[in-house]
Design a protein that fits this description.
The complex is a heterodimer. Chain A is of the alpha/beta class. Chain A is built from 22 helices and 20 strands. In chain A, helix 1 runs parallel beside helix 6 and helix 11 crosses helix 14. Helix content of chain B is 29%, strand content 40%. Classes of the chains: A alpha/beta, B alpha+beta. Bound molecules: flavin-adenine dinucleotide, thiamine diphosphate and magnesium ion.
Chain lengths: 602, 171
């Protein structure tokens, strides 16, 4: 995605003769950028755009029920297709409602172009009706933003916004569009192949660095490959190449939350997810390795734990397209700046050309150690006949959908982590979750963004009962567009993740984490014109999942699960990887895990 | 941060940016948003035709933070290039200050004598005051202002550092 950036705009103004209204220019530019769907919500400042939308049929508009949802839907669309997601909102409250979504897309490197209405230029700064300083507010939560004050720059700005959103490290871009610009006439300019004046991120890695990386890898005794969201950003070919590298080398590989699906979960060299709720074997392998190859992964604090105890004895190689991701939290020994897809391609090429021979015996000893860690079986949980264990519910969902093309989105909390641990992904772009910002309310709109891009696929939002209420109004969007999204609620009647931290670190004082006064989710589904189902014990679970899958339209499945189940393994904030907590009986009741340092972390 | 115990360094960084609305806000927002220090910051257009401005900034941080600052600046879309003058060999750094001093009686002579030693220029005189213009490295300005304080310093205004690497190479 980032390697191919053909239509970098700007340069000499090459005006075509015909003039168009600003609103028509915007739509024409969108069409020329290959946009077929936008997620939006109307209002006074964008009426000219809605008028123009009404009079065309190349772009489909999906009417959301809240602007935050528009951005998440565009994120789901973008992350499942590799394309740029497009959002349209009005000025003032429309733009401010979009801010959470924009921040989410920024943190998770999702390419979005968000068109915002604005009051007419002559009123800007006057506290006009529904005026907000949108470029000011969104400056820190976008990759870049624009305020268009001249209709003749409009087309160029839209093209440039797409270029910036998808190039280098992708991210959200806002274009603020004053109403007078949308109605005045100007010249249209098609996308052009001229290098951007200033923004030309490096995508081609340094060959010498690739060879230096192979030097380190071929002599490694305890290697690991740690891959993340950047490989997803680089497109499916990058995931294939990473898988090939794992096969060639026989090295163990772990993935971040954002990277699930890069390497098939069924691959024997896959160690599971790394980090706070990652597997024991992944974290101890990271901790004990002597050479680490990080690909498109940014050493987030949920991955590293205490940074001064993070993989202390290893040489670290990092492939990343964004130089600011290198040496930010963790000092690395070798940085390879460029697109992950390109870097992996060169790595595999050079690996073969150099006929790299891995000492199987040495690596075999490393694998023996890893297998001991694996044998701990860190994801084991107590099974029961009555109460539904949340982990089990996800295992069943996985097993019962294995033969389908299934996309999973999540909300935020324990259910999200259980989904990451127990749903097994074999392909990239099939897992959408809010990692960096951790936005409750992400999953439902993201799910229908995916569904719109993949109408025939099965799309499931694995949700918590608290999170789902944050964007529940989007059930109406499902109904309107007959989007058969399945909302699979692991209902533990708690903000479970909050409750877990309170149990482990705040003396069991469950301050405000009980989900009181919950709606009846079955009736709620019905009120929105969807199907509601409920499972309250083990004997009903499979039936409910089957019914959910067999129902053609949208469904809410309310799965009432064990209320007090905790998510393990867990590395408490501020702890090191080898200080991981396993599920009880490893843990004694009343144990406190809070270090002074860890308490303040998130 | 892994090197929180590492020593703090002072770096002078020059940044060439597109002279477009909001660009200064992006740079300042970056520093405040990420908790970096700004010792001084100056900005002015340097090429009207191409629409280029040059930002000179002085910042303090550990080597890892300084590296982050440069990488973060470089990824702002309107930034052309970032140059760490402290790291890239010798450079000259100059700042200008206007210094108003209340001076009557015998203080007038002493004030002027010190000004002469520092080569400060008198740009305004009244029976009771002087305004001096002084150019030089920041520490020279600090020293002079310090000397004026007991003599009757009223106020002073400083521009912040402008800086450039030595030799014939551009930027
Ligand atoms: C409740 C909760 C618990 C969590 N627990 C965990 C956990 O246990 N484990 C875990 O891993 N995460 C966890 N997270 C997520 C975590 O907060 C981070 O979002 C995640 O670890 C970051 O993933 P990443 O390193 O793959 O980076 P991303 O955020 O996906 O960043 C991608 C990186 O790749 C680079 N990049 C982008 N495009 C390219 C390209 N084309 N080529 C090369 N590089 C590129 C970017 O510059 C960036 O450095 C949790 C989140 C929540 C909400
Ligand atoms: C918008 C938002 N507000 C608050 C939080 C903090 N938070 C993280 S998880 C969580 C609880 C989620 O509860 P639920 O959706 O029921 O999921 P569970 O953990 O029970 O599976 C909260 C409040 C957040 N991540 N996002
Ligand atoms: Mg819950």
């Amino acid at each position: 995605m980032s390697t191919a950036s053909p239509s970098a705009p700007t340069g000499t103004e090459q005006t075509s003769t015909a003039t168009l209204k600003g609103a028509e220019i915007v739509l024409k530019a969108l069409v020329d950028q290959g946009v077929d769907v936008i997620f939006g919500y109307p209002g006074g400042a964008v009426l000219p755009l809605y008028d123009a939308l009404f009079q065309q049929n190349q772009i489909r508009h999906i009417l959301v029920r809240h602007e935050q949802a528009a951005v998440h839907a565009a994120e789901g669309y973008a992350r499942s297709t590799g394309k740029v997601g497009v959002v349209l909102v009005t000025s003032g409250p429309g733009a401010t409602n979009a801010v959470t979504g924009l921040t989410d897309a920024l943190m998770d490197s999702v390419p979005i172009v968000c068109l915002c209405g604005q009051v007419p230029t002559h009123l800007i700064g006057n506290d006009a009706f529904q005026e907000a300083d949108t470029t000011g507010i969104t400056r820190p939560c976008t990759k870049h933003n624009y305020l268009v004050k001249n209709v003749d720059k409009l087309a160029r700005t839209v093209h440039e916004a797409f270029y910036v959103a998808r190039s280098g490290r992708p991210g959200p871009v806002v274009i603020d569009l004053p109403k007078d610009i949308l109605v005045s006439e100007g010249a249209y300019l098609p996308p052009q192949e001229i290098a951007h004046r200033t923004y030309r991120p490096r995508t081609e890695p340094d060959l010498a660095a690739i060879d230096a990386a192979i030097d380190l890898l071929e002599t490694a005794k305890r290697p690991i490959i740690y891959a993340g969201g950047g490989v997803i950003n680089a497109g499916p070919e990058a995931s294939r190449l990473l898988t090939e590298l794992v096969e060639l080398s026989g090295f163990p590989c772990t993935l971040t939350l954002m990277g699930l699906g890069i390497l098939p979960a069924s691959d024997p060299r896959y160690l599971g997810m790394v980090g706070m709720h990652g597997t024991y074997e992944a974290n101890l392998t990271m901790h004990g390795c002597d050479v680490m190859l990080a690909v498109g992964a940014r050493f987030d604090d949920r991955v590293t734990g205490r940074t001064d105890a993070f993989s202390p004895g290893s040489k670290k190689i990092q492939i990343d397209i964004d130089p600011s991701s290198v040496n930010k939290n963790i000092r690395v020994d070798l940085a390879i700046i460029g697109d992950a897809g390109r870097a992996l391609e060169l790595l595999v090429q050079r690996w073969k050309a150099r006929k790299v021979k891995i000492d199987r015996e040495v690596i075999g000893r490393w694998w023996e150690q890893i297998e001991c860690w694996r044998a701990v079986n860190c994801l084991a949980y107590a099974k029961t006949d009555e109460v539904i264990k949340p982990q089990y519910a996800i295992e069943r969902l996985y097993q019962m959908t294995r033969d389908r093309d299934v996309y999973i989105t999540t909300e935020v909390g324990q259910h999200q982590m259980w989904a990451a641990q127990f749903f097994r992904f074999d392909k990239p772009n099939h897992w959408m979750t809010s990692g960096g910002l951790g936005t409750m309310g992400y999953g439902l709109p993201a799910a229908y963004g995916v569904q719109i891009a993949h109408p025939d696929a099965l799309v499931v939002d694995i949700a918590g009962e608290a999170s789902i209420l944050m964007n529940i109004q989007e059930m109406a969007t499902l109904k309107q567009y007959r989007l058969p999204v399945k909302v699979f609620i692991l209902n533990n009647q708690y903000m479970g993740m909050v409750r877990q931290w309170q149990e482990l670190m705040h003396g069991g004082r469950y301050s405000e984490s009980y989900s009181d006064s919950l709606p009846d989710f079955v009736k709620l589904a019905e009120a929105f014109g969807a199907t509601g189902l409920r499972a309250t014990n083990m004997s009903e679970l499979d039936d409910v999942i089957r019914k959910m899958l067999d129902t053609p339209g949208p469904v809410i499945a309310d799965i009432c699960v064990d209320q007090l189940e905790n998510c393990f393994p867990m590395i408490p904030s501020g702890a090191a990887h080898n200080e991981v907590l396993l599920a009880p009986p490893d843990r004694k009741a009343g144990d406190s895990f809070a270090s002074e340092d860890g308490m303040v972390l998130v | 941060m892994a090197d929180k115990t590492a020593p703090q360094e002072r770096h002078t960084i020059a940044v060439l940016v597109d002279n477009e609305p909001g660009v200064l806000a992006r740079v300042i927002g970056l520093f405040s948003g990420r908790g970096y220090n700004i010792e001084s910051l100056t900005v002015a257009e340097v090429d009207r035709e191409v629409g280029l401005s040059r930002i000179n900034l002085v910042t303090i941080g550990t080597p890892m933070v300084i590296e982050q600052i440069k990488a973060q600046l470089d990824r702002l879309v309107p930034v052309h290039s970032v140059r760490d003058l402290t790291e890239n060999g010798p450079h000259v750094e100059r700042e200008l200050a206007l210094i108003k001093v209340y001076a009557i009686g015998e203080n007038r002579a002493e004030t002027l004598r010190l000004a002469e030693i520092f080569r400060a220029r008198v740009v305004d005189t009244t029976a009771e005051s002087f305004i001096f213009e002084l150019t030089g490295p920041a520490d020279k300005l600090d020293t002079f202002i310090g000397l004026m304080r007991p003599l009757g310093l009223v106020e002073h205004a400083r521009t912040g550092a402008a800086a450039m690497s030595r030799g014939k190479e551009p930027f």
